[in-house]
């Protein structure tokens, strides 16, 4: 198959997943191309592709606004296959509603649904994930990526079921519509820490940051991707109302994947609180993997 991967990434979790998905697809002999969404990215030409994969991080139970704006300009042919590989830092039910805008647009174009998959990636806001947890979830993601490729090859199209309650609740909390613009008025670069390296300005996917008169200046079209604050080498960027939830520091995902699973499972039947939602999610991945690859060790 010839497959186009179209994705938006904030702190590069979705880019990492796209790297891994592309590697799995190519290992199976498929041809791939990819488009990463930034503010100035032109609509990709989808002609000639057997399938288009849409990747995005879930922001507040919704797909990111830059992703939605881009997809609105994209055109698929009637009957052309598409699939979704989304990711978040948790598996709460409200996340099931995050693809509703994309799915509605694809139905209007009469594109053919070919599956939806939810991956877990480490938080870039709220709190940092411990290293062993990152290592374990990446191993589960690798299994789910192989399931995704298998399903594409065999015409299996799993759905993540949402409902009217989830859809309404997710729409109600889609604060990105105004939250990023409002919060951006309170972004600051600490003059005592900032070295004016320009990393934040160069990397902002919305071209919303500039260095001017020896200071970091923030515009007001922020989509709260957290790339600037997460990767600031000196932890110099304050993120307004969200400062108490800020996470700073690279998880070094490729290295964590190479390290393999932790010696003891991080998520167990005894996991409680926030971590309880992963028990069922990980069990589901293991069951789907075992069904498709029964000859392999669990």
Give structural notes.
- With 298 residues, this protein is an alpha/beta fold.
- The protein is built from 10 helices and 9 strands.
- The strands form 3 sheets. Strands 2-1-3-4-5 form a 5-stranded parallel sheet, with helices on both faces. The chain has a two-stranded antiparallel sheet with strand order 6-9.
- Strand 3, helix 2 and strand 4 form a beta-alpha-beta unit.
- The longest helix has 24 residues.
- It starts with a strand and ends in a 6-residue tail after the last helix.
Brief overview:
With 298 residues, the chain is α/β, with parallel strands linked by helices. It has helices at 13-27, 65-73, 100-108, 131-154, 164-172, 176-183, 199-203, 227-231, 253-259, 277-292; strands at 2-7, 31-36, 51-57, 81-88, 112-120, 187-189, 209-212, 215-218, 237-239.
